[in-house]
């Protein structure tokens, strides 16, 4: 069996594949802000379980930094977070929300669907499709575009069509040989037709051409349908993570 990359490798690839617009490092803790678009790009997380000195003061400092950047204080705690950091958040009354998983696999040969398109992430056609399928308003769309403009690695908006109508889309980006997939969405009136699978395979075919050797994505623990899709494509569960927010913020 092929050895997949480490938790740290996946997390560092994720920093590039879903970047913050403003970034600040506090030793191995990274603070990121992106106008509030997604918790992943607007949170603080730790990359070294042994980096826990002054955790209580650094949690306060990170929270203040996020507030100054007009986002809500959020910590993303992965297996790289120290027990001391988690204990500090517990003692301060931070809530746990949105338990999630990272799924990954070795990327083999994949065939693209003939009705799939690979577009630049800021291509107006892709943005129009994403806005419609995601149900975003203008404010949400502007925030998404601002984040996409921060991409500095190979990336693509994947659009699958049927009968001339876009029915599924996602964003894929390749960092350090790992393709990270996000914003997977299917037309709600066209579900259970294999469209998300065809769209995903098409994007993975693009990533393979871009030199990706592995594929990874994040999925919420309560999204059974998405997990079933990803497992059918060959992804397997690697590790869990969770978001922490101050008590009373939910």
From TrEMBL:
GO terms for molecular function: acyltransferase activity, transferring groups other than amino-acyl groups. Residues 120-250 form the N-acetyltransferase domain. InterPro entries: Acyl_CoA_acyltransferase (IPR016181), GNAT_dom (IPR000182), Rv0428c-like_C (IPR056935), YpeA/RimI_acetyltransf (IPR050680). It comes from the Bacteria. Signal peptide: none annotated. PROSITE patterns: GNAT (PS51186). This is Putative acetyltransferase.
């Amino acid at each position: 069996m092929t050895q997949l990359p480490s938790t740290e490798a996946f997390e560092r690839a994720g920093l590039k594949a879903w970047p913050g617009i403003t970034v600040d490092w506090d030793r191995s803790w990274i603070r990121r802000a992106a106008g509030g678009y997604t918790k992943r790009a607007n949170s603080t997380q730790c990359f070294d379980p042994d980096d826990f000195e002054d955790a209580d003061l650094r949690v306060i400092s990170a929270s203040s930094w996020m507030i100054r950047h007009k986002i809500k204080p959020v910590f993303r705690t992965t297996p790289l977070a120290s027990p001391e950091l988690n204990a500090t958040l517990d003692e301060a009354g931070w809530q746990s929300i949105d338990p999630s998983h990272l799924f990954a696999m070795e990327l083999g040969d994949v065939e693209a669907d003939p009705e799939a398109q690979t577009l630049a992430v800021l291509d107006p056609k892709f943005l129009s499709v994403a806005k419609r399928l995601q149900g975003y308003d203008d404010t949400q769309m502007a925030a998404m575009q601002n984040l996409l403009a921060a991409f500095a690695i190979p990336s693509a908006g994947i659009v699958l069509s049927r009968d001339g109508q876009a029915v599924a889309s996602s964003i894929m980006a390749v960092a350090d040989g790992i393709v990270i997939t996000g914003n997977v969405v299917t037309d709600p009136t066209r579900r259970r037709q294999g469209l998300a699978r065809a769209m995903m395979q098409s994007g993975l075919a693009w990533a393979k051409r871009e030199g990706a050797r592995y594929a990874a994505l994040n999925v919420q623990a309560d999204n059974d349908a998405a997990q079933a899709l990803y497992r059918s494509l060959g992804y397997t569960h690697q590790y869990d993570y969770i978001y922490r927010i101050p008590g009373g913020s939910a």
